[in-house]
Each structure stands twice: as C-alpha cells, then as structure tokens.
# Entry
Amino acid sequence: MAALPVYRWRLAPDGYATRRQLRARGLRPGGQEVAAQLERPRRRRPPLVAYLYRVDLAKPVRPMTPARRAALARANAARRICPACRRDAGYVIPAALGTCVPCAFPEPSHASRSA
# Structure
C-alpha cells in the first residue's frame, strides 16, 4: 500500500483539488482514488485533513434529469413529515428530536393551568 503525498494547508501543487473545488468547477472525482491529502495543523488536536483528487482525471458532473429531480423532491418532502402526527412541519425534522417541535414538546392543556 503506497502512502499518499501529504501537503501543508494552502501549499498543494496545481492539478489537485478537493471535492468542493471540483464541484465548483462542474466536475466530480469520477471513481478515481484519493491522490494526495492536505493537512492543516491545529494546537493540541489532530490536524484537519482534506483529500485531494487529480483535476485531469475528474469527470463532468452528471446533469440533473427530471426523474432525479422528482426523487430528490420526494426525499426532501419525506424529511419534513412528522412520524408522530403525520403533518408537514414546514421544516426538516431535527434528527435529535425525531418528531416536530409541537410533538416533542407538547404544551400543557389550559385546564391544568387554571387549577
């Protein structure tokens, strides 16, 4: 197993890019292996690591088809449906709660307040 070349933060040579940088150029890694890595040192913690891909081997991003757009819309809509009350919450349900805010934190009834 060959070791990856490691570059310091902001010192990677031309021809390498992170996934985000590739996406900004309209490219994707296209199945290629990680070509190098970037390390940003931090005090008292392990360094931040970013993986680099070769730009010349990157492929164009696949276009969004109507079927993929519809599937993405359905997936996002499913994230907004509360599993407890089955209503559209109007926002993405937080994973930490698992339900919409009114179901997670029900307000006490008015009858119990007046007693």
Q: What stands out?
A: Strands lie at 6-8, 16-17, 27-28, 36-42, 45-54, 59-60.
